[in-house]
TrEMBL record:
Domain of life: Eukaryota
Protein name, UniProt field: DEFICIENS
Main location: nucleus
Presence of keyword DNA repair: no
Keywords: DNA-binding, Nucleus, Transcription, Transcription regulation
InterPro entries hit by this protein: MADS-box/MEF2_TF (IPR050142), MEF2-like_N (IPR033896), TF_Kbox (IPR002487), TF_MADSbox (IPR002100), TF_MADSbox_sf (IPR036879)
Organism (species): Cymbidium goeringii
A biological process from GO: positive regulation of transcription by RNA polymerase II
Domain K-box: 84-174
Location of the protein in the cell: Nucleus
Domain MADS-box: 1-61
GO molecular function: DNA-binding transcription factor activity; protein dimerization activity; RNA polymerase II transcription regulatory region sequence-specific DNA binding
Gene Ontology annotations for the cellular component aspect, listed alphabetically: nucleus
Length: 222
């Protein structure tokens, strides 16, 4: 039995539609390749599925651009005229914006003001005042931030300096034993400051330590 005639209409089921498209796309690609080989024809085939998937075939002896160029020459239709016109309009619009911005910059610098009316001059003045306020606000913020940073650094430096002084005082502490603070060694120790002075003297109630013979140079650590 032969195959029944298929009614040509849109397949409503998306899955069936995609399966049918894939099968028939492969068949068209095969036919195009066979036509190129059998008849030495130059073909360019472009397809887009309902989901936007792109497929193409082009004869090995040419390329797609060459096919389009030959089509324009034969048909007299310029495929790129509308696109070129759109790009030209976009370019002109961008040029106008660029000229406007350049003119505003010159006016903010005090140039090109001759053609401005009083209303435009007032608007320019107001815009510059607002810009100046923003710049000053940002400047004060930067100054405040830098000041806080420098204060923290200064505080850390002062703390480090105090720690170094304490270490230096500990290393230069003077220990001495002297019965007479008016002697040379006693005066030398006193000259180094009271924080460095640690005095060890024998008491009258300890006679066993009175005659041990420790002189001013017998026991001293500097």
């Amino acid at each position: 039995m032969g195959r029944g005639k298929i009614e040509i209409k849109k397949i409503e089921n998306p899955t069936n539609r995609q399966v049918t498209y894939s099968k028939r796309r492969a068949g068209i690609m095969k036919k195009a390749s066979e036509l190129t080989v059998l008849c030495d024809a130059q073909l360019s085939l472009v397809m887009f599925s309902s989901t936007g998937k792109f497929s193409e075939y082009c004869s090995p002896t040419t390329d797609t651009k060459s096919i389009y160029d030959r089509y324009q020459q034969v048909s007299g239709i310029n495929l790129w005229s509308s696109q070129y016109e759109k790009m030209q309009n976009t370019l002109n619009h961008l040029k106008e914006i660029n000229q406007t911005l350049r003119r505003e910059i010159r006016q903010r610098m005090g140039e090109d003001l001759d053609g401005l009316e009083i209303k435009e001059l007032r608007g320019l003045e107001q815009n510059m005042d607002e810009s100046l306020k923003l710049v000053r606000t940002r400047k004060y913020h930067v100054i405040s931030t830098q000041t806080d940073t420098y204060k923290k650094k200064l505080k850390n430096s002062q703390e480090t300096h105090r720690n170094l002084l304490r270490e230096l005082e500990a290393e230069h502490a003077v220990y001495y034993v002297d019965d007479d603070p008016n002697s040379y060694d006693g005066a030398l120790a006193l000259g180094n400051g009271p924080s460095y002075l640690y005095s060890f003297r024998s008491q009258p109630s300890q006679p066993n330590l009175q005659g041990m013979g420790y002189g001013p140079h017998d026991l001293r650590l500097a």
